[in-house]
Amino acid sequence: MSDGKAKLDLAAQDEEVMRHIEAVMAITRELFLKKRKPRIKKVPLDEESFGKGACLYVRSMTGTARSEYEKRWAGRKASKDPGAFRWDMMVRTVCNEKGELIFTDADGPAVFEQDSGPNEDLFEAGCILNGLRDKDIAELAENSEAAQ
Predict the structure, then answer these.
(1) What is the pTM of this model?
(2) Beta bridge partners of 72
(3) Range of the domain at 110
(4) Angle between the 63-74 and 82-93 helix axes, to the nearest 10 degrees?
């Protein structure tokens, strides 16, 4: 490789490195604490049941709402009432395209009389978006067993 070509390759690598460095920016406390819209994820629904292109959305919870969800279930065994466990996640996350929650606690019985497929899709999407993983659910179950 000629010296000129090597210098061009290094310059190109340096530009690439600089682009990555510029893309990584530590933000200020004020910027982090600034009110933000919740993250929203589209959840497609079964076309046969709801029609072509039908969907709902799930949104991220605030840290406070996530803590309330965990506290509520830490002292209870989710396996004794899995519908309520799922419903509690759904009522806190299922929303319209604007991020407005669409269900209330009173809707639970009617929702759970329907096909479980869409319920499970929405529950799982809400868990994933809010960082509630299988290990978190297992910890809630362990904590609830220890509390009993």
Answers:
(1) 0.72
(2) none
(3) 38-147
(4) 170
